DNA sequence: TTGCCTATAGCAAACGTTTCCAGTTAAGAG
DNA sequence: CTCTTAACTGGAAACGTTTGCTATAGGCAA
């Protein structure tokens, strides 16, 4: 009968360890470790012998034990503000790709837009002893922030967030430039009643976009209407209800800017309700090139930024940090891309 | 001057360990461990004392050490075939949510549709000693498959894949039913030249959809045209080139089915090239309710399955497996949802 | 020949937990 | 009053690696 072959005296269920490799190769544990990890103090003969035995036994090093001993987990934590936003999928993907290329794995945790969850996520990553954390924070003024950004003894990269006084790298998009370009375009086309729906200004993108927005008006020496701004929520519900209100205003807005995925959803629903078509009765610009737009709505004007580049850059910054370099801020450019939806309305 | 306070005699850079908690509370290491892990053999007084000291010192257990000792990592590996498919984002998200709710973290690795990458990914997860693996395989006949599915000493859940003779759970969608419904609908509307573009049949969804497709013709006692099927690639390029060919056939197809994200992309581009509008000159059905369709293309008829439910179910199956239950297969229903795009063409 | 250096190998102590086992105390039973 | 038992507590050995230190051997210069 084909017995549960346990040649080496151990149960077949046990995974093979460095100890068994050492025994079979008749060398010391330390030699196996060195031979396999590429340590210089190993003779060619020893290395070959150990590698052969390791292959033969199908030895796969225990990363948990390696981590405990060496203090390095080769794992990066990615805290994402709200994974509902499809941009994050793209970003996380390119980031993971770059990290894996460098021998790191990524643990992705989602805060669902909630500060308490975010705090728990940071704690989890600290307990897991990740080598670095990439974070898209829910807000820049959470009470846990100091602890979470200063506490961990690992490099941190913030995505599109500005937190003063912490020693973290950051990837910031230059939203202001793109928005400035977009709004200037609208003003030149004769628009005056330009509405703007976006999330609250406790995060950098909102503030930065606002800067570009107001500066465009200033540069054109045109007075803007503060009551056309709905600054307060990134979710579709907020955008929907505020878009409804804005559309009932008189004079009605002739153009409308959507800050992010939720705003895009909400506004497009509100427009449909009132039977308004983007690019005809009203000009529309999305302040983010959301990935799904490429597919079916290739007529939507956007302020574009290269999301995959942001992910890659975040990965590079965290790797730099791990190698001991000083934190730094990396600026990503944005650009207004004119398509059909920003026509009309005038 | 505010010196680098090192009250406990250790460098401030060192993380606090169970040892320091034990010292400060003047109890044994083992008592601290038991008190914090909820072990029953601990007096109330001891538990309080330990917890107070732990809080005071800001002790955060080292999950790496816990894992090494206990053999449990509370980590699930998620091998995804190709994260380009936006459905996976949704699926992974709901899965991660369910896992985190149960105290598990998820490591997501992407195979980019490549068998070698997939093999490396499995190896990585084994070395990380994950407690379970959820996998969407590149193909069902990769040479590494036996090793990767039988090798790891942990439960496995396959997503929409059938691999005979391995002891794994699976979440399978009942594509056949939805496709049967969709094709029957088209046949009743008078369509005869129904084209079908999808990935190769070395994965279950293709084979299963094909079953539903042919059975619908059989049940209607109508002969189908095999030359209207393009079975071979999930990527947009494949779909584009084959859709072009199909559209030049004579008689031209009056309806076209897209199997998955890539097919949808490719076909819609081909239609645009020929200036054909879905629901007018040609009927169109997407064999997957892709998340972005809800947003702008709410007129696309689809065969729907609840992607988030699939993610949740995968999480539950893996947790079951960890608790020692036998692997099992869970079937998810699909359903034809008629919208405007499946009109016309006749 | 002697001494020193280099290259390599082995031993054993970590890393931070959990858990088995044995010991202590106090309470309850006889 | 003694014995048994229950309820805890402490000590120490794991878990599977890496790594500092020591030992050995051979080569080479003096």
Bin the helical content of chain A. Answer: 40-55%
Instruction: Report the major sheet of chain A.
Output: 6 strands, parallel
* Number of separate strands of chain A: 12
Provide mean pLDDT of chain A, rounded: 90
Gap from first CA to last CA of chain A:
86 Å
Radius of gyration of chain A: 27 Å
**Which stretches of chain A of 5+ consecutive residues score pLDDT under 50?**
1-12
Side-by-side strand order of the widest sheet of chain A: 2-1-3-4-5-11
What is the N-to-C succession of helices and strands of chain A? HHHHEHEHEHEEHEHEHEHEHEHEE
Multimeric organization = homodimer
- Report strand % of chain A: 15-25%
- Gross geometry of chain A: elongated
What would you call the structural class of chain A? alpha/beta
Question: Using CB atoms under 8 Å apart, which protein chain pair has the greatest interface?
Answer: A-B, 41 and 41 residues
Count of helical regions of chain A? 13
Describe the structure.
2 copies of one chain form a homodimer. The first copy, chain A, has 346 residues and is of the alpha/beta class. Chain A is built from 13 helices and 12 strands. The first copy, chain A, has a 6-stranded parallel beta sheet with strand order 2-1-3-4-5-11, sandwiched between helices. Chain A has a 6-stranded mixed beta sheet with strand order 7-6-8-9-10-12, with helices on both faces. In chain A, strand 9 (283-286), helix 12 (293-296) and strand 10 form a beta-alpha-beta unit. In chain A, helix 10 (236-248) crosses helix 11 (261-273). The longest helix of chain A has 16 residues, at 86-101. Chain A is elongated and about 85 Å long. The first copy, chain A, starts with 17 loop residues before the first helix and ends in a 9-residue tail after the last strand. Chain A binds a DNA duplex (30 and 30 nucleotides) through helix 2 and helix 4.
């Amino acid at each position: 009968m084909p017995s549960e072959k346990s040649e080496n005296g151990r149960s077949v269920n046990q995974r093979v360890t460095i100890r068994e490799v050492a025994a079979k190769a008749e060398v010391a544990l330390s030699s196996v470790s060195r031979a396999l990890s590429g340590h210089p103090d190993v003779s060619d003969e020893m290395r070959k012998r150990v590698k052969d035995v390791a292959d033969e036994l199908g030895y796969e090093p225990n990363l948990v034990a390696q981590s405990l001993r060496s203090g390095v987990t080769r794992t990066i934590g990615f805290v994402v503000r709200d994974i509902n936003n499809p941009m994050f999928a793209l970003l996380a993907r390119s980031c993971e790709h770059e990290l894996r290329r460098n021998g790191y794995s990524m643990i992705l945790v989602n805060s669902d837009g909630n500060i308490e969850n975010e705090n728990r996520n940071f704690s989890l990553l600290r307990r897991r002893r990740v080598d670095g954390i990439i974070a898209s924070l829910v807000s820049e003024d959470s009470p846990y922030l100091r602890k979470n950004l200063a506490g961990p003894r690992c490099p941190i990269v913030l995505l599109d967030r500005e937190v003063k006084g912490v020693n973290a790298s950051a990837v910031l998009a230059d939203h202001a430039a793109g928005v400035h370009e977009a709004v200037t375009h609208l003003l030149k086309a004769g628009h005056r009643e330009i509405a703007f729906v976006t999330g609250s200004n406790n995060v950098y993108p909102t503030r930065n976009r606002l800067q570009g927005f107001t500066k465009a008006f200033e540069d054109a020496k045109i007075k803007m209407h503060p009551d056309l701004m709905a600054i307060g929520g990134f979710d579709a519900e907020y955008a929907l209800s505020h878009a409804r209100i804005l559309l009932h205003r008189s004079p009605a807005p002739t153009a409308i800017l959507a800050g992010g995925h939720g705003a895009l959803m909400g506004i497009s629903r509100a427009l449909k309700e009132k039977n308004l078509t983007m690019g005809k009765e009203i000009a529309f610009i999305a302040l983010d090139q959301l990935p799904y737009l490429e597919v079916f709505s290739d007529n939507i004007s956007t302020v574009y930024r290269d999301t995959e580049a942001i992910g890659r850059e975040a990965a590079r910054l965290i790797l730099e940090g791990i190698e001991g370099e000083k934190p730094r801020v990396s600026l990503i450019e944005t650009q207004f891309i004119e398509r059909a939806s920003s026509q009309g309305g005038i």
